[in-house]
Amino acid sequence: MSYPPEKIWRALTQPHLIEEWLMQNDFKAVVGHRFNLRADWGAVDCQVLAIEPNKTLSYTWEAHGLESVVTWTLTPSSTGTHLRMEQSGFRPDQQQAYQGAKGGWPRLFAALERLLARSD
């Protein structure tokens, strides 16, 4: 992404910005903080596992029987920032959840990109 890590970090950690590209939330950038992501289809229960400002953010992602972990890694590059997101913890019997994530995350990334393109 052609944005500095600090700008992407804000979009990943400020509740009013998270709401614009992901879901309504009560996120706080504090290890151990429990928060919810809410959408018209339901809610995701989360807990912050790790935070290294402008570098790493990790939290649990639990919904509809799925217990997974989402980890964001930001690495500065010559053109901006390499942003990596990994969601781990899918069981073999959770194909529906896996396919839902596989289909849903690209739309969320597109929304994140639109937010970054227009905000300071």
Describe how the helices and strands are arranged.
Elements: H1 5-13, H2 15-21, E1 24-25, E2 34-39, E3 42-52, E4 56-63, E5 66-77, E6 80-88, H3 95-118
Antiparallel strand pairs: 1-2, 2-3, 3-4, 4-5, 5-6
Helix pairs in contact: 1-2
What's the N-to-C terminus distance?
A: 15 Å
Mean of the pLDDT scores?
A: 96
Q: What's the CATH superfamily, by name?
A: START domain
| Poorly predicted runs | none
Structural class: alpha+beta
The CATH architecture term is: 2-Layer Sandwich
Instruction: Could you tell me the CATH topology label.
Output: Alpha-D-Glucose-1,6-Bisphosphate, Chain A, domain 4
Topology order in helix (H) and strand (E) letters:
HHEEEEEEH
Major beta sheet summary: 6 strands, antiparallel
Q: CATH top level?
A: Alpha Beta
Total individual domains = 1
Radius of gyration: 14 Å
Strand content: 35-45%
Give the total of beta strands: 6
In which range does the helix fraction lie?
25-40%
Estimate the global geometry from the Cα principal axes. globular
Strands of the largest sheet, in order across it? Answer: 1-2-3-4-5-6
The helix count comes to 3
List keywords for this structure.
120 residues, alpha+beta, Alpha-D-Glucose-1,6-Bisphosphate, Chain A, domain 4, 3 helices, 6 strands, 40% strand
Describe the structure.
The protein has 120 residues and is α+β, with helices and mostly antiparallel strands. The chain has one domain (5-118): Alpha-D-Glucose-1,6-Bisphosphate, Chain A, domain 4. The chain is built from 3 helices and 6 strands. The protein has helices at 5-13, 15-21, 95-118, and strands at residues 24-25, 34-39, 42-52, 56-63, 66-77, 80-88. A 6-stranded antiparallel sheet has the order 1-2-3-4-5-6. A hairpin with a 2-residue loop joins strand 4 (56-63) and strand 5 (66-77). Helix 1 (5-13) packs across helix 2. The longest helix is centred in the last third of the chain and has 24 residues, at 95-118. It is globular, with a radius of gyration of 14 Å. The two termini are 15 Å apart. The relative contact order is 0.18.
